[in-house]
Amino acid sequence: MKNRRTFLKNTTLALAATTLPLPYFACSKPQKKLGIALLGLGGYATNNLAPALMQTEYIELRGIVTGSPEKIPVWQDKYDIKDENIYNYDTLPEIANNPEIDVVYIVTPTFLHKKYAVMAANAVKHVFCEKPMAMTVEECEEIIAACDQNKVKLAIGYRMQHEENTQTIIKWADTKPYGTLENVHTEAGFRIGSSGGWRLDGAKGGGAIYDMGVYPINAMRYATGLEPVSLTATHETERPDLFLNGAPEITYFDLEFPNGITAKGRVTYADNVNFLKVNCADGNYELSPFQSYNGVQGSTSDGKTLAPCNCNQQAIQMDDDALSILNGKPVIAPGIEGLRDIQIVEAALESGRNGGKKIELKQY
């Protein structure tokens, strides 16, 4: 059985997973800048991605795709976007004829990711897709297939895998400076209110396990360098009037990995929590917070400090992915990364619905 580390080596991703964020492919620094269109102009695109694109070196904001006409003049005024680079969701296929747009970044709610990622790929544009990648493994497979068929890159927005301290944790899974890994404990969440919108609706990718679950799940995987073989999970909802269509407010999940390694996780919409701890035979290390937009920092059992990086995670992420396109190299977080996490999300939902039943996980 191939573990995740073997997979990374076999696909030449090990180098990408163990180097510092910038420059990702320092051996080749192309002069060209790619053009990107943001599809979906909600809070993350507005407050994080667009400002980050003002700091990137290899990719720049040139277009928008929106279903809200009132946002267009605001974005045009702020980012000098040409009329011909503005699309709505129905006219998205026309982007195929626009040579100024190289990449479409899907930043809609999760339940719309598959639809628009496939449309962008079919327009022969590279696809950046926010996490969670999609609602189901089947949808993830459709996105991957569309990108493969159209010979375009697919990068999932796992910004943490581009962050310096997180890359140290990824490297330590391989080098084991504190001895054999024994177990991982990670939790992530915040207290959500009635204004949570789609995040409160399980049918739209809501609930803590769908929306936030990929953070601790992905952390378990990159902290061990392995793929889990089984899972059990339970759900709790303290405010049932707030959540729709089976969206759980809190999910507890335990994963079993090869070599006897275990991982315990919790994802929650009930309280604020944010840490990753790795216990080994000869010590331990942690990041706290481990998935904040800034200030990711940590410590080790022998007194080392992983100081926060003064950097923009989204800018690093998009520059890394742009360089992978320009240099014809693999991206750090390809579609299979998103698919594997969604497999675990689906398994957690199934296990929780069946009283914590143990679910065996397929090895992709």
UniProtKB/TrEMBL annotation:
Keywords associated with the record: Oxidoreductase, Signal
Where the record annotates domain GFO/IDH/MocA-like oxidoreductase, the positions are 167-272
Q: Which InterPro entries does its entry note?
A: Gfo/Idh/MocA-like_OxRdtase_N, Gfo/Idh/MocA_oxidrdct_glycsds, GFO_IDH_MocA-like_dom, Glc-Fru_OxRdtase_bac, NAD(P)-bd_dom_sf, TAT_signal
Q: What is an example of a GO molecular function annotated in this UniProt entry?
A: oxidoreductase activity
Extract the Gene3D superfamilies matched here.
Answer: Dihydrodipicolinate Reductase, domain 2 (3.30.360.10), NAD(P)-binding Rossmann-like Domain (3.40.50.720)
Entry-linked Pfam families: GFO_IDH_MocA, GFO_IDH_MocA_C3
Q: Which residues form the signal peptide?
A: 1-26
Annotated Gfo/Idh/MocA-like oxidoreductase N-terminal domain ranges read 35-158
- Domain of life here? Bacteria
This protein is called what? Glucose-fructose oxidoreductase
Taxonomic lineage from the root: Bacteria, Pseudomonadati, Bacteroidota, Flavobacteriia, Flavobacteriales
